Amino acid sequence: MEVKGNLDKMKTKLVDTTIQYQLVLNEKTVPLNPLIGQQVTLSFQNQINCVVCGKKTNKSFGQGFCFNCFSSAPEAEACILHPEKCQAHLGIARNLEWSTDHCLIDHYVYLAVASGVKVGITRHHQIPTRWIDQGAWKGIILAKTPNRHIAGVIEVFLKNFYSDKTNWRAMLKDVKGDTIDLLEEKGKAAGLLPSELKKYLYPQDHITELNYPVLEYPSTPQSLTFDKQLTIEGILKGIKGQYLLLDQDRVLNIRRHRGYFVSFKG
C-alpha cells in the first residue's frame, strides 16, 4: 500500500483506554495500529505546502506555516503559544471571527503526567486529545475558564511551581513517574491559586488514564527529520504522543513535519 499527501498531525481515538492512531495525508488516512511490528517507509518528496494557504514554501515555520501565514494567520497568533497574551476578549485579534470560535470558548487548565507533572491548557473539546498528543499517560482537569486569556493567566501563575514542558526523551523512554498522585497534586495546585482565580476551579476529580500502542520503547531516542534524510524506514515499534517509534531507537515527530509532502508505504 502506498499513499501520498501532505502530512498533518496524526488523528487519535480513545477506545477504552487504548489509543488508536491514523496517519493523515491530505484527505487520506491510514490506520497505523495494525502496522505495528511491520516495515514502514516514509519518503519526503522535496515539497512543503503551507497548512493554511496551501502554497509551496521552502521552509516550514511554526509547524507547517509559510512565512506570510506565520506572520498573519490567526492559527499562528502569539496566544497560541502564550495564551495569557490573548486579547480576543478585548476585541483584538488577527481574525476576530476565528478567535470567537477558538479563544472565546471554554478552556481547561489541566495537570498531566508523562514523566513528571506538567500544567497546560486546552480548549474544552480537546480533552483527551491534548494529553495524547503530549504523550501523557494520565491527566486531570484543574480549572474551567470562559476564554483562553484567563486559562493562560492561571497557567502562567502555576508555572512558578510546575513545568509547562514535556521531557520528550523521558516520555518516549516510558519514564512514567508512577508515584505521582494527581489528586494530591490538584489539591496542591488549587491551594496555590490566588482567591480571584479559585472561582474557576473544576469540581470533578476524574483522572483519565491512557495506554499507547507500543511493542518496545527506545532506550536512547534518536530523533529523525526529513530535513536531513529524504527516506525514513524501519520496523514500527509503536506510537506515542505524535511520534512514530522505529527500530534502532529511532523516532519521528509527525507533527513537526506538518505540510511535508511524503509517500507512505506500510
List keywords for this structure.
266 residues; alpha+beta; 2 domains; nine-stranded mixed sheet; 8 helices
Kindly, what is the distance between the CA atoms of the first and last residues, rounded to a whole number of angstroms? 6 Å
Q: Using only CA atoms, what is the Rg?
A: 19 Å
Q: What does the main sheet amount to?
A: 9 strands, mixed
Number of folding domains?
2
Q: Can you count the helices?
A: 8
Helix content: 10-25%
General description of the model:
By secondary structure, the chain is an alpha+beta fold. It has two domains: 123 residues, no CATH class; 133 residues, no CATH class. Helix content is 20%, strand content 33%. The chain contains eight helices and 13 strands. The strands form two sheets. The chain has a nine-stranded mixed sheet with strand order 3-2-1-13-4-10-11-12-9. A four-stranded antiparallel sheet has the order 6-5-7-8. Strand 5 and strand 6 form a beta hairpin. The longest helix has 11 residues. The chain is globular and about 55 Å long. The mean pLDDT is 96.
Quickly describe the structure.
This protein has two domains: 123 residues, no CATH class; 133 residues, no CATH class. By secondary structure, the chain is α+β, with helices and mostly antiparallel strands.
What is the fold's blueprint, element by element?
Blueprint: E1 2-15, E2 18-25, E3 28-31, E4 39-48, H1 67-72, H2 78-81, H3 96-102, E5 107-113, E6 117-123, H4 129-133, E7 138-145, H5 148-158, H6 168-172, H7 182-192, H8 195-198, E8 207-209, E9 222-224, E10 231-240, E11 243-246, E12 250-253, E13 260-265
Parallel strand pairs: 9-12
Antiparallel strand pairs: 1-2, 1-13, 2-3, 4-10, 4-13, 5-6, 5-7, 7-8, 10-11, 11-12
